[in-house]
């Protein structure tokens, strides 16, 4: 999990995947699953007068972890739950520390004070204090997220509200957010059934989906270059990929040419994340990870079934913009509208 900041000469300005404006101390967070979506926008935001924070979720090979002895199975043992309840809070809190320090404010102490409050404080008082935290921040934080990043941010906001913790956000912009997937093509439906069928057996054996060695990453990198150097080959691959995902015309070949697809590092995905998305598609609702048994779910959520996040959208207390791609076949416009209707 990484976060980068593009600083301007003038202090007190943040933007990017998290950005903040000099006049009103606006901060925006842009989160894509692999931090590749519209990456050039951070330059435009810098020109407009923002500082830019670019953040992505965990997903490189396990050797990138601080603990070099961490086993691959332990490293990849996470689902969308961990993205929303561990990764995103870490990113937000780091931004909060930077901005409060930069702006010379003591507001960064509020979150710690709230955690130390006595158990006998009334829920209404906690909620009021939570609202004051965001209102009295020396900056305003706007998150702009794409695809899985959108689902993660929604999970972060909802779970923060349920736990009565400050999410520190002032606005959300969600570009084709994941979370509902029942309206998908035949290929995705087939993958869903396969993953759910073999998931319990395959998860311990294949904890992460990634290219494991430098040699094979080099081969893929060479192949990606060939796609660009030979337009006919690239066009064929582009067409085939379009058919696989139901006619989506996104630049699939262009994605492989991005800098982070190289021999040294290449993004991967946890099998549990894939299994979690398959569970969401089957359940036809945006829910937390299903641990497979009533006892495990009771321990994690206090209920026999995973928490239904969509049913708690009423807790969202900030303005939100939803953007759908008319020709998007991965997350169709109808699924984005489902988010909207529940809100």
Describe the structure concisely for a colleague.
The protein is of the alpha/beta class.
Give a description of the structure.
The chain crosses the membrane at residues 141-163, 194-212. Keywords: Membrane, Transmembrane, Transmembrane helix. InterPro entries: AB_hydrolase_fold. Helix content is 46%, strand content 12%. It is an alpha/beta fold and 343 residues long. The chain folds into 2 domains: 3-182 and 308-342, Rossmann fold, CATH 3.40.50; 186-301, no CATH class. Helix 1 (41-48) links the parallel strand 3 (26-31) and strand 4 (50-55). Helix 7 crosses helix 11. The model is unreliable at 9-25, 32-38, 105-111 and 117-126 (pLDDT under 50).
Q: Tell me about the biggest sheet?
A: 7 strands, mixed
Shape by Cα distribution: globular
Helix/strand-derived category reads: alpha/beta
The top level CATH class name of the largest domain = Alpha Beta
Count, helices: 13
Which fold does the CATH topology of the largest domain refer to? Rossmann fold
What is the CATH architecture descriptor of the largest domain?
3-Layer(aba) Sandwich
Order of helices and strands: EEEHEHHHHEHEHEHHHEHHEH
Average pLDDT for all residues: 79
The stretches of 5 or more residues where confidence is low (pLDDT under 50) are 9-25, 32-38, 105-111, 117-126
Distance between the termini: 30 Å
Instruction: Please count the beta strands (DSSP E, at least 2 residues each).
Output: 9
């Amino acid at each position: 999990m990484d976060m980068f900041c593009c600083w301007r000469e003038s202090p007190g300005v943040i933007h990017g995947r998290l950005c903040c404006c000099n006049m009103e101390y606006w901060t925006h967070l842009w989160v894509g699953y692999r931090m590749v979506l519209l990456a050039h926008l951070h330059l435009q935001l810098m020109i407009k007068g923002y500082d830019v924070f670019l953040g992505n979720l965990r997903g490189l090979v396990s050797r990138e972890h601080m603990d070099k002895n961490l086993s691959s199975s332990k490293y990849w043992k996470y689902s969308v739950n961990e993205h929303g309840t561990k990764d995103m809070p870490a990113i937000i809190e780091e931004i909060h520390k930077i901005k409060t320090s930069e702006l010379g404010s003591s507001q960064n102490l509020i979150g710690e004070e709230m955690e130390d409050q006595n158990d006998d404080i009334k829920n209404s008082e906690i909620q009021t204090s939570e609202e004051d935290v965001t209102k009295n921040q020396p900056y305003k934080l706007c998150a702009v997220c794409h695809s899985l990043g959108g689902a993660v941010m929604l999970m972060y906001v909802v779970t923060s509200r349920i736990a009565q913790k400050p999410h520190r956000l002032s606005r959300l912009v969600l570009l084709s957010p994941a979370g509902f997937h029942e309206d998908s093509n035949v290929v995705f439906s087939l993958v869903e059934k396969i993953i759910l069928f073999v998931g319990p057996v395959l998860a311990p054996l294949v904890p992460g989906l990634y290219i494991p060695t430098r040699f094979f990453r080099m081969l893929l990198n060479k192949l990606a270059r060939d796609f660009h150097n030979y337009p006919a080959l690239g066009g064929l691959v582009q067409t085939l990929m379009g058919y696989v995902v139901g006619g989506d015309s996104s630049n699939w070949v262009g994605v492989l040419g991005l800098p982070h697809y190289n021999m040294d590092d290449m993004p991967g995905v946890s099998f549990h994340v894939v299994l979690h998305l398959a569970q969401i598609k089957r359940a036809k609702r945006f829910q937390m990870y299903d641990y497979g048994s009533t006892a495990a779910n009771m321990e994690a959520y206090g209920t026999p079934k995973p928490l239904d996040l969509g049913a708690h959208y009423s807790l969202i207390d900030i303005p939100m913009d939803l953007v759908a791609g008319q020709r998007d076949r991965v997350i169709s416009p109808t699924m984005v509208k489902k988010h909207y209707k529940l809100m």
